[in-house]
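Hey, resending since the last one bounced:
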Amino acid sequence: MNRRLLTILLAAFVIAAACTFLVFRLVSNRVGARQTSTTNVVAAKQDLKLGSILTADNLTTMGITGAIPQGAILDKDKSRVIGRGVISDLYAGEPILESRLAAPGSGGGLAATIPPGMRACAVKVDDVVNVSGFVTPGMRVDVLISGTPPGEENSKEGTVSRTLLQNIQVLSAGTDIQKDAEGKPKQVQVVNLLVTPEQAETLSLASNQVKIQLVLRNPLDTKTDAVPGTTTGNLFAGQVIAPVKSSRAATTKRAAPRSFSIQVINGSKESEEKFAAPGGRQ
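The structure tokens again:
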């Protein structure tokens, strides 16, 4: 092989190797710089329960490499989260997100967990027959009422039971909005439910007029069923059927006449004859 051609090939190989090495170093430096860049965000220094008020003592800073979670609060904005309420349990080392905090100025406790447009309505329950000893915040219940409709105290159907509200979220059980130390429900006599203003009016009226019972439901079961209700009479009828309509409608009907009269004209004489109606007396 020509010595001159061999020299040219060798020089080209060296130049190509050098260029490859330089490109590799540049790309590696850029990738490494991106991977090592971190963003400091605000995190929980300790476990924080729902309803807690954030202070400087229970906040810390942690570095996150790469993309930060949506809604994360940067370290430079730490001052604007102090004094806000926690509306969902936080754990030590967890970044604090805007969606886990109450609005500024709303404070903490139960009120801070109520979404806009909703209300917290307290319902008194019976420890013996209700689910007060089994509900915890976040569970879903149906509200059942039992009583005698107005004006039907002497009805043969007896007590009427029907489903008043369905798929209602439990905000708190008793005075607590948290579970006990072991994560178990507590025996309470008051349960706070998350309802709309219209449902709050209905529930308030029912609590003063009839007996209320809560029924637990699967939190994944959000379907609302058309429940007709039942009566005491149906319990002994051999089958469950919808309660009869109110008997008050029947009282508005006009009573059938017991007799009727016919005017008889005979020439210049007029007379009136009365006849007994079927089932009646003259």
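Helices lie at 3-36, 197-209, 232-235.

Sorry for the duplicate.
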